[in-house]
Amino acid sequence: PWFERQLRHKVPCIVIFDGLDEVAGNEDRKRVVEWVNTQIERYPNNHYILTSRPSGYEKFDLHVADHTVLFLRPFSDEQKRRFIQAFNEAVELRRYEGDKVEATQVATDKTRQLMRDIRTNNALLELAGNPLTLTLITAVFDYHYPDVFQFANRAKLYDDVLMLFLGKRDRLRNVQRDIPFSA
After folding, report:
1. For a tag site, which of 67, 105, 109, 140 has the least CB within 10 Å?
2. Which residues of the chain have pLDDT under 70?
3. Angle 74-46-73 (CA atoms, 0-180°, nearest 5)?
4. DSSP code at position 153
5. Which stretches does DSSP call E strand in the chain?
6. How far apart are CA 151 and CA 159, in angstroms?
């Protein structure tokens, strides 16, 4: 009831439906699109955002008269470098307990190395244009650093991400978990 009151209120809400492309199967996706359309018709005074890769919505009719399709533009090289530098500085400031000079130097060295790896590996270069994927790449790179980051393909990256976030990261930070992890 609380949500319905908010959606019917005079002050518009922003409603976000994230990941339409992640709905498995065209029939299920079609039902989700129909349900979204129903919500938009039922609560027309709100603003709606539906996220999807293009393949997730191209076949389906979002019958909203006034809608705009936007595409996420890939990061430029400079945006990648700034993003990686900021990520690395945040990590290193924590490792060096606030020693900004040392943390910035290590972060800059790591950023140079990762940017060199990205520029020389076409598959990695393509993935690094996406902010989420660049976050994953940078996290895995940080875990492996100073060892060489071996990027083979997207599947290997995701495998490394899962291993990192399912336990290796906590072990590195000396965080104890109730669930045992072995990999």
Report:
1. 67
2. 60-66, 167-183
3. 5
4. -
5. 14-17, 47-50
6. 11
